[in-house]
Amino acid sequence: MKLQERGEKLRGEVHIWIRLGHPNVLKLYGIADGFAPLPALVSPWVENGTLTRYLEGPGRDIPKEEKIAILVKVGEALHYIHSEHVVHGDLTGSNILINSECQPLIADFGLSSILEEYNVTSYFKSCRPGAIRWVAPELLEQLETSPKPTIESDVYSYGCVMLHMLSGRIPYSEIQDYHIPHAKMAGLPRWPTGVPIDVTHWKMIENCLDAEHKRRPPLPDIISFLESVGDS
Question: Protein kinase domain: from which residue to which, for each copy (predicted)?
Fold first, then answer.
């Protein structure tokens, strides 16, 4: 595919993002040409940066109730884009942003499959080290054709966000990146030692990270669970 044709494909996919409207989905204003081989995406500035950086800085010591509130809002935003027939496909701690009011905004959905067609270094690839830690195992299988992200693989990634949020540690924190695919195929990550994750929360995380994608719970059930434990 020629670069011009790929650019047109990217524009078409970006317009899916532009049409979405949810308080916890980052607004995309449009695209601008002339900065790089890929069109530039134009969005609001988000003061606290990524969730990963937030948890390493000002969000390190926020109470559990606030962490659960953030998870609920991320889950609601993810469920909303699914209701619009969009799969994120690349949810990690690096494309959930935290604004000045400590509200989460998810971004970058649907772009990973487009960007992999470009033989160039992109913002999304270069600024998201370790993204494999959030990827569902079925997307890492060696198939003749690359498997496509699904709602169930998004649930897996959301479970990894839960683990990250509640433990303060990235998924598979005890393992180096190149060992991650084998670890995912071998089974669930171990319960992080020395961190205060409740048994009920860990059970839900395990359910989200089930190697059998059909057994993962639907997002409305996960959101209802988080709301109920947040109120207890």
Answer: 1-226
